[in-house]
Backbone:
């Protein structure tokens, strides 16, 4: 029995498109060249002691280097920690330690996190866009590639499909980030599952071997939603945007003939703005797979108006891919009804099961109205969080994953995810953990209680809104009404001053590496008291109803 | 980890097309109904003692019954012996015994084999198109379906992906048929591999969830080349042709809106003749996956002229799917170049590896000219023949399958299979074992030696040609020249008489169940002596060169 291991994908690349290009900056490699470079990199790493189970941390933008590491690591049976460089620095460090990273591969373009990370690792490889190592004596990726022999390492034939392939840390809504350990087989089946769904069903993001792909989802996030695996599997042309701005991405789309990208709605929003500014009226033939947060209908309309087709994917790092929107049977593609369905009707991937449960654990009917928590079962569902059996037990139950998302099941068996049960804020496709923010804010001496809730935002999807109850005596009486900082009425000066102080407090936390800057709430609102649940906790549902505008 | 077992496919059917139809004769079932019937059938069989490892033999035309048995058997962990009813009756019986069949499910439409098979089995289920059992007291399939509860059997959750799913016997070129035992995982991955290839690459037989499928390859043959699995996986409409004649198949294509079929070239030939007779000038939008024997270029042209698109698949029961023809990169679909490539350029399926070896085991270059034996490695390659380690060792070597086929590798990595290394005759997509025929013919008292070789045939692809050396003295001298029976020259009367006697001899063997009628050679040629190889064996290559016209 031949094993479903990730590096087998390269054999398909060599059959399907040995001469297809991988483009990054000034680099143009064919898959035949990429394959040779992967072998060389694997041999060079092997010589340095990298082998089965060695954990390799990588921090890079989407580049050919990152792609090469995917496969060299796979061949050696090593484990690729695709470092989530958007985590707050403290959490990032925690993830490196928790995963047991032994080697770091880091792009020189990253600034802030490096000062803290660099001293911790003796085994370090620089990822550079230039020729020389930024640190004499420390090798670059390119030096390793040039050094190794172009020969399949023996380990490549002994890697098992149930061996770990990669590890990724995702922000928890409370506490430390959670590690997900992905087996070769799971990541392969999930990635190909996305592709096969897009290829066999009528979607807006139809994908095939003759498309040109530019993944705008960073590779750290589930390998760019599987593109690092399924594009080579097709042998299709791959354009890697690196740190490209929306305007540069737009230029790549036009110049390289890109037909397919993935991105969160915020990225799509920015791309459309860039198109406005560049006077690019039409992007017909450009297909986008989006997801990560709900797609606002205004955004969907603006995309359509430019000729962009899209589908929405539902999934996440702790369950991988679950569903992708399709045009329902009997609906003509290209019609308004089809477009609306592509925003809201997500069909489970092959062999994925989705069901809804209400708060009492009862099944929720597929009536297109009733809301329940989304539970998912799939061939690639992870067993649980890495070295965290307690949190695993809460959400991985009897082979099902309790997503914490709220959804509606349509009568045709498709899913519309309407909300999250928990209260995390998703900004630009990235989670902001309200619990972490609340804990930080509550450290301020003038704060009695705090709740952070999501405020819808056209650009970022959501932004955090902090609702603060000032400490009695520290503030001044106000009329009991909810007031904005800066709004008219009693306590305005005091609230404005407190907001300023809270912002300084959080800015300090950013400097200390305890917080990512984009986590700082956009808005502060001050209240005399919170609505409470029957259990005495802050009632965030009521709060949102009251606060969010 | 969720297992890749065959009955999981039905869950996708329920998501992807619960209301899509399965059509057979007057039957119209939705997948939702089919699913319920499968559960009922499984429960009824379970009640009768069918369980893990029970071998169920099924002889049926492509029908909803056959489809239901696929999934009921899978859910119980039973093994489905898809009986090759085109085997000579002796071999068919051998296959039932060798596989350890405990239950038989037989369509009443079969006549000849039944008399011999029926008495051997106490556990018997009739498959009928009518209402009543042809044998009072013996249940029909439909009675079992009506009897069982619509409840998932407990066994369904304990079946492992490495458990055997089905067994199939294929004609060996010498000796008894060879049994192939397929694991759930292998059959699932191979079947879906065919679909995904057709969905992601530009082929003539593009396949998706909105196609309407009519498999004309019998389900016994690798589950109708995977259609019994991948069509429900898509939730697509499925038209089951049963024993339909080519004219009836044509009617189904038109009336049911069929867009996709699979068939061997002989079936395609007959379908085109039926279209001629029915005055159907065009079948635009009809896509055909063909294979099993080379596609004559004249046949390909005639299909194209009617608007039929096609691709060619390469594979077989002992290796499953290996490659399917595609339009090469850079070639415009629909052009003459594209059409020719679709006949000759077979791209290996994802994660399948193909290489060519010469007679000395050296690699053959991919130059589009050099011929070598085709070796295949794939994620679903069986371990070997069932209970036949000796023959397995010959062809399953170091994880590779030695196909016995001769091929040319094109510079773009695609494969063109040009011939078979061995000498079996393939007639209408079915093997005729020359060794078996030779053994039978040589039993005739007037035969000294005999060789059966393939004679190209426009309708059947190939037909057997028997070259006979009459026993000295039994015949009469002839001039040493090769002569046809019935042709002018010395010995004509004697040869005509001998041919008549040989035909009677073989007809008797058919009556005795030792031979299928269609195995009887079309032509007999008589020779004084055979060209021999250095090893003293009949040189069939030289013989073919000399004889075949």
Residues:
């Amino acid at each position: 029995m031949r094993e479903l291991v990730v590096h087998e994908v390269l054999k398909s690349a060599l059959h399907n498109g040995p001469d297809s290009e991988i483009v990054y900056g000034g680099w143009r490699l064919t898959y035949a060249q990429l394959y040779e470079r992967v072998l060389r990199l694997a041999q060079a790493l092997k010589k340095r002691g990298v082998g089965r189970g060695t954990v390799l941390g990588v921090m890079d933008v989407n580049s050919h280097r990152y792609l090469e590491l995917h496969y060299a690591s796979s061949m050696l049976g090593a484990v690729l920690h695709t470092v989530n460089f958007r985590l707050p620095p403290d959490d990032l460090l925690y993830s490196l330690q928790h995963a047991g990273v032994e080697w770091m591969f880091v792009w020189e373009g990253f600034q802030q996190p490096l000062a803290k990370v660099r001293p911790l690792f003796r085994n370090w490889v620089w990822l550079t866009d230039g020729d020389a190592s930024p640190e004499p004596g420390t090798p670059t990726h390119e030096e390793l590639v040039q050094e190794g022999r172009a020969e399949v390492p023996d380990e490549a034939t002994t890697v098992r499909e149930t061996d770990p392939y990669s590890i990724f840390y995702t922000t928890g809504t409370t506490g430390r980030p959670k590690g997900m350990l992905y087996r070769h087989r799971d990541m392969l089946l999930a990635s190909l599952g996305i592709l096969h769904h897009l290829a066999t069903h009528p979607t807006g993001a139809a994908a095939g071997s003759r498309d040109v792909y530019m993944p705008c989802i960073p590779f750290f996030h589930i390998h760019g939603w599987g593109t690092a695996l399924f594009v080579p599997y097709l042998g299709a042309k791959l354009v890697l945007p690196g740190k490209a701005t929306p305007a540069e991405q737009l230029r790549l789309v036009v110049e390289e003939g890109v037909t397919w990208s993935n991105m969160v709605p915020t990225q799509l929003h920015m791309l459309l703005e860039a198109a406005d500014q560049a006077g690019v009226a039409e992007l017909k033939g450009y297909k986008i797979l989006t997801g990560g947060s709900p797609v606002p209908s205004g955004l969907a309309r603006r995309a359509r108006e430019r000729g962009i087709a899209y589908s929405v994917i539902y999934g996440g790092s702790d369950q991988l891919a679950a569903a992708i929107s399709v045009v329902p049977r009997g609906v003509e593609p290209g019609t308004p009804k089809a477009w609306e369905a592509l925003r809201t009707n997500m069909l489970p991937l092959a062999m994925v099961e989705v069901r809804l449960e209400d708060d009492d654990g009862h099944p929720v009917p597929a009536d297109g109205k009733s809301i329940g928590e989304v539970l998912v079962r799939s061939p690639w569902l992870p067993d649980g969080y890495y070295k965290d059996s307690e949190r695993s037990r809460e959400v991985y139950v009897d082979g099902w994953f309790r997503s914490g998302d709220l959804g509606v099941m349509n009568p045709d068996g498709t899913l519309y995810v309407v909300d999250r049960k928990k209260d995390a804020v998703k900004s630009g496709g990235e989670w902001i953990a309200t619990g972490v923010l609340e804990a930080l804010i509550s450290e301020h001496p003038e704060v009695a209680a705090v709740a952070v809730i999501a405020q819808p935002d056209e650009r970022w999807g959501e932004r955090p809104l902090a609702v603060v109850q000032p400490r009695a005596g520290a503030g001044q009486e106000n009329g009991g009404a909810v007031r904005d900082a800066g709004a008219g009425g009693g306590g305005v000066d005091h609230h404005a001053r407190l907001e300023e102080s809270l912002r300084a407090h959080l800015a300090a936390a950013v400097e200390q590496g305890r917080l990512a800057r984009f986590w700082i709430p956009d808005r502060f609102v001050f209240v005399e008291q919170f609505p409470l649940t029957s259990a005495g906790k802050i009632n965030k549902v009521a709060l949102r109803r009251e606060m969010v505008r």
